[in-house]
């Protein structure tokens, strides 16, 4: 496991923290837009060790959390059809839709299987040609190429019984939407490591150019995160606004052009509905016309109307960084990991789940 | 959830690799990084290798920080 020890070196982490403290004068709010960062920040206690003038805010970086009920309801509806196997990532099982969850549907007899990868879903399709295998596709730019690759494999291996519920999202334009309606005063972005491993750094340049704030693509180990914060604070203190990469070992400037080519061979950009945020132009993906036969929603003629959210759930405001989970009346009362009301408590990457797991009960 | 730990490619057969992760072998697709070779370290996401880890850059990043800290101390 290469470069694990080095990036978990507590001595180096302490030294970087000391540097942050020595250069940091201004009050700053840094937002991470990756659920893995959110979890890592909590797990390593990074919020607690930073000086008081540096606040870390979690943004809409948890793909499960930003998936609106419409798509969950679609997946549930499809799972009820005879002869269907619905394959999904495990985190989606417990997320409450408008009236049910995949977990409840499975308990009621639907054939819903948790898979680790789209390849597993393809494998099920290949071994069960008499069944329709539908993959519930959620995720950002890191996951979407794996869904595109699966569609291409399904075509190559002639698996007409494979299709997807596409609910993927794109991150950079969501960051633009957050900045355009910024009510919290974001001073800098900790950009996601593995989304960037695919898309590279160019898609973030507008953040510095149009909004005048810095962005640093950051890795996931404690030294990575502290280093990313140092680079952001340094830019802010110097009045600079650039896109930098701390996570050079995983993110070449151009990202992974082969993966993006596969992604955009299969999908094209469209608008997307984000839970609690609404429709954000240019943040969704839809199958291109030539691959539209892999669209499970049209294949099964699904039309969802009347989807609804839990009235007390403040997941949307949490996702925008406007409130912390502590400001939601349901948090740790009606909404707990064993009985989640909203997706931010379901997913391990959800801000509410991270607050709960790491014992955060007050600010 | 992104798996932040680089995994080492042990063998490759028809664009499917065996990678070692904490002493355990796992199967991952190389469809997104077809240029990956045996002994490369790769980032893995949802059963796919998504990027080859650049060892030189990894060392440079660490070195850059050691230099800053040493400079500040001296």
Describe this structure in words.
The complex is a heterodimer of chains A (363) and B (74). Chain A contains 17 helices and 11 strands. Chain A has 363 residues and is of the alpha/beta class. Chain A folds into 3 domains: 6-63 and 177-245, HypD, alpha/beta domain 1 (Rossmann fold, 3-Layer(aba) Sandwich), CATH 3.40.50.11750; 67-170 and 257-299, Rossmann fold (3-Layer(aba) Sandwich); 315-358, no CATH class. In chain A, the strands form 3 sheets. Chain A has a 5-stranded parallel beta sheet with strand order 2-1-7-8-9. In chain A, strand 5 (132-137), helix 8 (144-156) and strand 6 form a beta-alpha-beta unit. The longest helix of chain A is centred in the middle third of the chain and has 17 residues, at 222-238. The mean pLDDT of chain A is 94. Chain B has 74 residues and is of the alpha+beta class. Chain B has one domain: SH3 type barrels. Chain B has one helix at residues 55-73; strands spanning 7-13, 16-21, 24-29, 41-45, 48-52. Chain B has a 5-stranded antiparallel beta sheet, with no helix packed on it. In chain B, strand 2 and strand 3 (24-29) form a beta hairpin. The longest helix of chain B has 19 residues, at 55-73. Chain B starts with 6 loop residues before the first strand and ends with a helix. Classes of the chains: A alpha/beta (363), B alpha+beta (74). Chains A and B meet through helix 1, helix 2, helix 7, helix 8 and helix 10 of A and strand 4, strand 5 and helix 1 of B.
């Amino acid at each position: 496991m290469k470069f694990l020890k080095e990036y978990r070196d507590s001595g180096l982490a302490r030294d970087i923290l000391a540097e942050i403290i020595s250069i940091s004068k201004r009050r700053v709010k840094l937002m991470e837009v990756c659920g893995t960062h959110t979890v890592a920040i909590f797990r390593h206690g990074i919020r607690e060790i930073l000086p008081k003038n540096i606040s870390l805010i979690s943004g809409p970086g948890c793909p499960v959390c930003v998936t609106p009920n419409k798509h969950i309801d679609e997946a549930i509806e499809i799972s009820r059809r005879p002869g269907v196997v619905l394959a999904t990532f495990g985190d989606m099982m417990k997320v409450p839709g408008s009236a049910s969850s995949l977990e409840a549907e499975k308990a009621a007899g639907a054939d819903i299987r948790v898979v680790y990868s789209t390849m597993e879903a393809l494998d099920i399709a290949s071994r069960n040609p008499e069944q329709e295998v539908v993959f519930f596709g959620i995720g950002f730019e890191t996951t979407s190429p794996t869904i595109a690759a699966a569609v291409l494999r399904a075509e190559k291996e002639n698996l007409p019984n494979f299709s997807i519920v596409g609910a993927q999202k794109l991150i950079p334009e969501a960051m633009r939407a957050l900045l355009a309606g910024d009510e919290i005063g974001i001073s800098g972005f900790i950009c996601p490591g593995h989304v960037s491993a695919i898309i590279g750094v160019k898609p973030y340049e507008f953040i510095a150019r149009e909004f005048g704030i810095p962005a640093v693509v950051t890795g996931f180990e404690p030294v990575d995160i502290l280093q990313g914060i140092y680079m952001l604070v340094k830019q802010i203190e110097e009045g600079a606004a650039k896109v930098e990469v701390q996570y050079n070992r995983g993110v070449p400037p151009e990202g992974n052009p082969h993966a993006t080519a596969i992604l955009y061979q299969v999908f094209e950009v469209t608008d997307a509905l984000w839970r609690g945020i609404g429709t954000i132009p240019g943040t969704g993906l839809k199958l291109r016309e030539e691959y539209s036969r892999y669209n499970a929603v049209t294949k099964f003629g699904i039309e969802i109307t009347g989807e609804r959210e839990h009235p007390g759930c403040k997941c949307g405001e949490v996702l925008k960084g406007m409130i912390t989970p502590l400001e939601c009346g349901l948090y740790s009362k009606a909404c707990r990991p064993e009985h989640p009301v909203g997706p931010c408590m379901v997913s391990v990457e959800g801000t509410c789940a991270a607050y709960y797991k790491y014992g955060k009960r007050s600010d | 959830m992104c798996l932040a730990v680089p995994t080492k490619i042990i063998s490759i057969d028809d664009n499917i690799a065996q990678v070692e992760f904490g002493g355990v072998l796992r199967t991952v697709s190389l469809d997104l990084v077809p240029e990956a070779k045996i002994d490369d370290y790769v980032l893995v996401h949802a059963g796919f290798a998504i990027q080859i880890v650049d060892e030189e850059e990894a060392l440079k990043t660490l070195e850059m920080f050691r230099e800053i800290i040493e400079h500040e101390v001296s």
